[in-house]
Backbone:
């Protein structure tokens, strides 16, 4: 009996250690301590290779956002199909056991947050972290950067599988009629209320709550403390068992709400088409808070 108890405690400890080794947010100190870990893969997101080659976290690999969020005639930020995703992730050296840390540059948090969501959607749920504050926070901590090309790495053995974290308009419609799910608009309140945006229709999805993504980050593009994040989320949803489906203009800035929800332990999904699609379909309900 004593042996079984000790074995059970060891399993629980191991599970706790594993869970703690995959935080949603990491600090520069954490990344510096872990960047030589065998399974750690650091991806720095830059719009231009030139910017990456100018400066990046030592050991980081170059991630061009369009590889994981290409635009198409059907809309912006489409997730890659499984075959394309496998090729991209393998070229980045990502394995089934990889722990990925994403680094954003300057104030490009929202697009990197979308990369976070996409990687989890492709099967790396719980295996992706974000460097809080990005490259600027890394440099503020006095840590060195390096220049040069992205390192050559062995191909990874990842087998991506969709996790249904990106949902379509039909899923949103069904969610609006349930008590187990809710829809949240991640845009500024003025757009939620009905300010002109350039879309065919303005306002918000009927029945959606407003949880603006800028409220969740501070002036340095770091996420606010957990207690403050909790206050914002509790204002619209105090039940962590109730799934939250975020949307915005194109499915980019809502990814910040997705990460904040993951930090707090909520069940999060994102409506991929967002208002770029919804506003163009007159049969789908929208409303304004003010006329």
Residues:
């Amino acid at each position: 009996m004593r042996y079984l108890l000790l074995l059970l405690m060891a399993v629980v400890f191991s599970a706790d250690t594993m869970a703690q080794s995959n935080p949603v947010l990491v600090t520069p100190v954490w990344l510096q301590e872990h960047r030589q870990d065998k399974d750690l893969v650091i991806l720095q997101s830059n719009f231009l290779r030139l910017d990456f080659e100018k400066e990046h976290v030592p050991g980081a690999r170059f991630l061009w956002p369009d590889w994981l969020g290409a635009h198409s005639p059907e809309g912006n930020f489409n997730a890659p199909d499984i075959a394309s995703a496998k090729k991209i992730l393998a070229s980045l050296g990502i394995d089934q056991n990889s722990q990925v840390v994403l680094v954003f540059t300057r104030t490009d948090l929202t697009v990197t947050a979308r990369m976070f969501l996409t990687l989890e959607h492709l099967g790396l749920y719980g295996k992706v972290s974000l460097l809080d504050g990005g490259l600027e926070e890394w440099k503020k901590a006095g840590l060195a950067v390096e220049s040069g090309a992205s390192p050559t790495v062995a191909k990874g053995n990842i087998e991506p599988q969709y996790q249904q974290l990106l949902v379509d308009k039909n899923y949103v419609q069904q969610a609006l009629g349930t008590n187990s799910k809710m829809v949240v608009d991640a845009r500024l309140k003025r757009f939620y209320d009905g300010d002109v945006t350039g879309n065919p229709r303005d306002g918000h999805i009927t029945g959606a709550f407003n949880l603006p993504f800028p409220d969740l980050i501070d002036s340095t593009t770091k996420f606010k403390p957990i207690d403050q994040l909790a206050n914002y989320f509790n204002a619209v949803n105090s039940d962590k068992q109730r799934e939250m489906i975020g949307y915005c203009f194109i499915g980019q800035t809502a990814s910040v709400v997705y990460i904040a929800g993951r930090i707090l332990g909520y069940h999060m999904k994102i409506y991929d088409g967002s208002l770029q699609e919804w506003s163009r379909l007159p049969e789908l309900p929208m409303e304004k808070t003010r006329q």
About this structure: The chain has twelve helices and 14 strands. Residues 2-140 form a domain with the Oxidized Rhodanese; domain 1 fold (CATH 3.40.250.10).
